[in-house]
Structures are given as structure tokens and as C-alpha cells.
Design brief:
The chain is mainly α. It is built from six helices and two strands, in the order H-H-H-H-H-H-E-E. The protein has a two-stranded antiparallel sheet with strand order 1-2. A hairpin with a 2-residue loop joins strand 1 and strand 2.
């Protein structure tokens, strides 16, 4: 039985594949950006003052929902990339690659949490200390914020 050899990939082909890989989460960003922009603008106090009918509680619930849906992609941008890049670059076992990317991201956050704990920065609930060290809860793990969260 002969061993299966992987086909040679040129540098150009690798970067083309990498570019296609980035398109998966980036495509979601445009949709979420539109939802976030519309929802946030139509629920703002200034717009409601100009157009009072938008103050309707049902409409405000819809606009708030749109804002929440829109902020999803920006809150979980690192997670989306840690799953999408291995998924797009793997030739076989794409599911395993995506899962490994997610596990790697979680382990990285646990390692940062361990480092922050050893340095004496954690555990704390002092908001000033957390903000000064750029610490957020990421997937339930206190770690250095690596995202582009909407705050």
C-alpha cells in the first residue's frame, strides 16, 4: 500500500486559500455591522426625540434586538477567526481542525488567566484593576481582552 502524499502548494496558492479563509468571518461582519448600526441609531435618544413614533416599546424592543444581534460578531470576533482559519486551511478533517482552533483559543485564555493569577493581578473584582489591565471575561475565563467588543 502506498502512502498518500499531500500535493505541493505554492506560496501564492497558500495566500489565496488564506484570503478565502478570512472571508468567512468578514462576510458576517458586514451583516452584523448593518444590524448594529440600524438598531443603535433608531434606538438612540436623539432619534426618538426627532421621530417620537420610534419611542414605541415594541419598536424599541426590535431595535434593541437588532443591536444585540449586530454586536454578536464584534464581541466574538476572535472566536470566529480561531474557528474559521483552521476550518478554511484544513484539507481533511475540517471539523476536527475547527474544534482544535477553538480549544487552542480557550487554552490560550486559560494560560493568560494562570499568568495573571501568578502575577497577583487576579483574582479581583475591582473594576479599576480590571480596566487598567484590560481584563475581560472571555468565554467565562478572566483573561486579557483580545477582542473588538462594542462597549
Amino acid at each position: 500500500m502506498t502512502a498518500k502524499t499531500a500535493p505541493k502548494v505554492t506560496l501564492w496558492e497558500f495566500f489565496q486559500q488564506l484570503g478565502k479563509t478570512f472571508m468567512l468571518p468578514v462576510a458576517l461582519l458586514s451583516f452584523c455591522g448593518i444590524m448594529l448600526g440600524i438598531g443603535s441609531s433608531l434606538s438612540s435618544h436623539d432619534v426618538i426625540t426627532l421621530i417620537p413614533v420610534l419611542g414605541n416599546p415594541v419598536l424599541q424592543a426590535i431595535f434593541t434586538w437588532m443591536s444585540k444581534i449586530g454586536s454578536f460578531a464584534f464581541s466574538f470576533l476572535p472566536v470566529m477567526f480561531c474557528i474559521a482559519i483552521p476550518l478554511g486551511l484544513a484539507r481533511e478533517n475540517k471539523g476536527v481542525a475547527a474544534f482544535a482552533g477553538f480549544v487552542g483559543y480557550a487554552v490560550m485564555n486559560l494560560a493568560v488567566n494562570f499568568w495573571l493569577t501568578n502575577k497577583g493581578i487576579l483574582p479581583t473584582t475591582d473594576a479599576a484593576v480590571l480596566k487598567a489591565n484590560n481584563i475581560q471575561s472571555i468565554l467565562g475565563i478572566q483573561s486579557i481582552d483580545t477582542g473588538s467588543s462594542v462597549r
